Amino acid sequence: MSIRRSLTRREFLKTAGIAAGGATLAACAPQVASPTAAPQLTAPPQPTAAQALKTLRYAMSGKVSSADTADPAFGTSQHDGRLTSAVYDQLTQFDESLKAQPMLAESWEPNDKADVWTFKLRQGVTFHDGSKFTSKDVVYTFRRLIDPATASPGAGNLSMLDPDGIRAVDDFTVEFKLLQPNVDLPLALITRQTFIVKDGASGEDLKLNGIGTGPFKLKEFRPGETPSIYEKNPNYWQSGLPKVDVLELLAIGEAASRVAALQSGQVDVMEDPPTPDLDKLKAGPDTRLVAQPKGNMEVIAMHVDTPPFDDVRVRQAMK
């Protein structure tokens, strides 16, 4: 049984009430919290068990920072990744074999040279504010990402895109004409920054008030503070999901503190459980280990203008 150091978007959402899975430790029963009633003169009736809100408290291993943002174009930290995974969707997503699967795009097709790709979009999807998701949102998202004026850290990963070659064929069809052929474009479009935002959304507004098509709405978020809180999107396009009403994302950097929080009932799920504590945690009557074997990849960064990595033979040997 292996424990990964971090979770993909897919795994995070699975442990956040969308489905079972992920490399985490979870308490067996979710937190149930009563909804807050509006002020009134008479005492409001107590909610029944069926009416109570199901809250999932998720302890991530990373720290929060004042640089955290709800704008996917600038997401770099672990907290940013968890936030965007909850609030936004992408055109495609990885499966357990690291292959591209449909998300907001239902299908895609390249031309013979793989330098023009046509994506057919999912219909009936809405943003959290009720506006319809269309091809205009996709065109805006990617043109904004690669615009030098945006200065997104994700622009370099999309160097194959030509801003003038991204166009809406119709309301639910987008065409990408590339600067060079790319046979793996559906995979290349899955990065930290490629979550779809609304057409015309401003950077200042997105920084704190992200509006996406994802399973959760952003309720409370203040950069550098924890927890951040998310509410269920009742109109999410995946029927029956998410399975919890409220998601609380807490940053607990110390592994021992995450374990203590789980054992004391302060959180329901913790990621990256420490190996020395696994046997004890697995033996606990109120906890269970959730693991999901999958393919993975590691990046070895090398300065190609600095010895010994300026020698192509060394880089090939490392590869």
Description:
This protein has 319 residues and is α+β, with helices and mostly antiparallel strands. The chain folds into two domains: 9-36 and 54-88 and 214-290, D-Maltodextrin-Binding Protein, domain 2 (3-Layer(aba) Sandwich), CATH 3.40.190; 92-188, Dipeptide-binding Protein, domain 1 (Alpha-Beta Complex), CATH 3.90.76. 20% of the residues lie in helices and 23% in strands. It is built from eight helices and 14 strands. The chain has helices spanning 9-18, 78-87, 135-146, 185-188, 203-208, 255-263, 278-283, 312-318, and strands spanning 24-27, 31-33, 53-60, 92-94, 100-102, 105-110, 116-121, 161-170, 173-178, 216-220, 228-232, 246-251, 269-271, 287-290. Strands 1, 2, 3, 10, 11, 12, 13 and 14 form an eight-stranded mixed beta sheet that branches. Strands 6-7-9-8 form a four-stranded antiparallel beta sheet, covered by helices on one side. It has a two-stranded antiparallel sheet with strand order 4-5. A hairpin with a 2-residue loop joins strand 8 (161-170) and strand 9. Helix 1 (9-18) packs across helix 2. The protein is globular and about 55 Å long.
Architecture blueprint of SSEs:
Blueprint: H1 9-18, E1 24-27, E2 31-33, E3 53-60, H2 78-87, E4 92-94, E5 100-102, E6 105-110, E7 116-121, H3 135-146, E8 161-170, E9 173-178, H4 185-188, H5 203-208, E10 216-220, E11 228-232, E12 246-251, H6 255-263, E13 269-271, H7 278-283, E14 287-290, H8 312-318
Parallel strand pairs: 3-12, 3-13
Antiparallel strand pairs: 1-13, 1-14, 2-3, 4-5, 6-7, 7-9, 8-9, 10-11, 11-12
